[in-house]
Amino acid sequence: MSDKTKPSPPAAAIVLTLYVGTKKRGAKSKILTIVRGRFASFSVIQGIGFFRGDSEPMWLIKLATPAPLVAIETAEALQAALGQDGVGIEFAGQYYRVTKDDAASALRRLLLKRARRSPGKDGHDT
User: Fold this and answer.
1) Rg (CA), the chain
2) Which parts of the chain register pLDDT below 50?
3) CATH of 14-117, one of 3.10.20.30, 3.30.70.120, 1.10.3470.10, 3.60.40.10
4) What is the pLDDT of residue 93?
5) In the chain, what's the furthest Cα-to-Cα distance?
């Protein structure tokens, strides 16, 4: 097989975790609907979290994706749909928040910078 006919290797997956905590009824269903609309494969871990001293049900959504900007867009959608103060995103050992006033802009800049170092990668699937 010549180099011209070899399939391209898949893009490396970046692992991110979304943190969603809420006491709202129907939250799990909304979370799954939103995440399923953007990712075919993911893991959801349900537990109890503490926010400002109060416990609440929480969901950790583990994503492995070559399109990490879609994870930020997903966190934005979750924040808006659930009326959250914020949705957390863990990436490379750092914690970022998506709020209505700041959609994890520091993380977005970091991911775009990484994408520029890897030609042809903008953080979205193409």
Assistant:
1) 16
2) 1, 121-122, 125-126
3) 3.30.70.120
4) 95
5) 61
